Every structure is written in structure tokens, then in C-alpha cells.
Amino acid sequence: MCHFFFFKALALALVALDAFIAVQASLYIIQPSQGSICSGGSPCTVQWLDDGTNPLNSQIGVTTCGLYTGDMQLVQTIEPVDVTGVQSFTFTPIPDAGPDSNDYYIAFTSTSLEINGTKYTSYSPFFSLNNMTGSFSSPLASATSSIAIPSSLTGVDASSATSVLSTITVGTITTPLSPTSTPSATASSSRFSTLTSSSASATTTSTTSRVTSTSSSTSSSSASGATSSNGAASLRTASLPLFGIVSFAALLFL
């Protein structure tokens, strides 16, 4: 009798674990990597993969992109991209948009995929920018203005689709002890997945804590990463679909 309940509990645990892991999967960003360096005024490459876990790149689809620091503080908007059709792009950091720092990361926010009512967002690892001459405390308006989503990506009139990226009022920023998982989490891990709200005024909780930023409007947001290696998101865990199926079958049998 004891063995019966033990195996039944084990089967339920594995099924639940598999379901949880499936939700945490995400866009797998491999470049910029943890500790890599780009320069203001020079092309910087961003690259990602589809690792076959949910959500697939085809489900994420068209995304708005941006260069961020701290707790989703927008530094520079980047051209929207459909992660289904391509796996990389280059952008040129605007020198006046921010200072030399190793606390930058790229965020992709899906325009269509939502999880628990929140737009799906994925983060790159933290990386460095040099040859920068700006300041985080004085965002450059021309660098953070919205970019229209091309009709070639949406299939609709570009004037009706605009990339709106989240940003926050600069207040007191507590930087991470070291970049790790989540665009402001730990330093020696790879962080690659996260569910985060694109609205700066909402409080969003994810699997990994990101840097806390206190603003005059007391906005806070927590990002967890389908990103992973750097301070950008939590270490991606491999899914266990086979164990889940076998365990579920065992449960039915018992």
C-alpha cells in the first residue's frame, strides 16, 4: 500500500514539474553573451536560437526590441523583428544614449503571445558598452522614441502598428551583485527566459528577480529570464516531456 501511494505521488510530481518547466522555456539568446563588449557608434550583433521547447519562436512571432539597463529602464529602441523568420540582427548603440557600463541587456517583447495576461518578454545576458558618452539619469528622447512595426511583419498598415517599449522614471537603482540570470540578477549563470510586463507601471512577478528600481511613481517590476547567462535571466532548465508522459501513464495505470 505504501509503495502504491509513493509511486502515485511521484507520478503526479513529475507531471507537475514537466508542466512548470514548459512554461518557463523561452527565446534562447546566445549573443551578446555574458561579459561580451559592444561599442557605441559601431554595429552590435544580437543572435538567438529556437531550442524546440515551448514557447517556440513561431509562437513568439513579431517582437518589439530595446536596449535596457537596470529594472527595464529603456536606453534605446531597436527595430522590431519577427523571431520566426530570422535569428539575428545588428543595431548600432547611440553613444549619447547612456554611459560606459556592463549593465546593458537586450529585451524582446512579443506583440502577440501572452502568458497569464502578460506580454511574453525574453532577455539577453548582461553585456558591456564602451565609447558611450551619455547618462542613465538623462535618457535621450530621440533614442527612446517609438518605432513603427513594418507592415511586412504585421501584414497591416504600418501607421496603425507602433512599437511601444516600457521604460521607468529613473530613481534609485540597486545593481545586482553580479550579472547572472535575469537582466539584473546573478552573474555566473545563463539566464534565458522570462515573463515580464511591457508596462512600467505594473508589478510583474517572474521566476527570477531583477534589479529593483525605486521611482517617484513607485513602479517596480520583476523579470525572470528566458534569458539566462548573465544577470539577464534564470538558467534555462531542460524540459522533461518524456518523463511527464511516462509518469502520467503510470498514474492512470495505478
From TrEMBL:
Keywords: Signal. Residues 203-231 are annotated as: Disordered. This is Yeast cell wall synthesis Kre9/Knh1-like N-terminal domain-containing protein. InterPro entries: Kre9/Knh1, Kre9/Knh1-like_N. It comes from Lentinula aciculospora. Residues 31-128 form the Yeast cell wall synthesis Kre9/Knh1-like N-terminal domain. Residues 1-25 form the signal peptide. Pfam families: Kre9_KNH. The lineage of its organism: Eukaryota, Fungi, Dikarya, Basidiomycota, Agaricomycotina. One of its GO terms (biological process) is (1->6)-beta-D-glucan biosynthetic process.
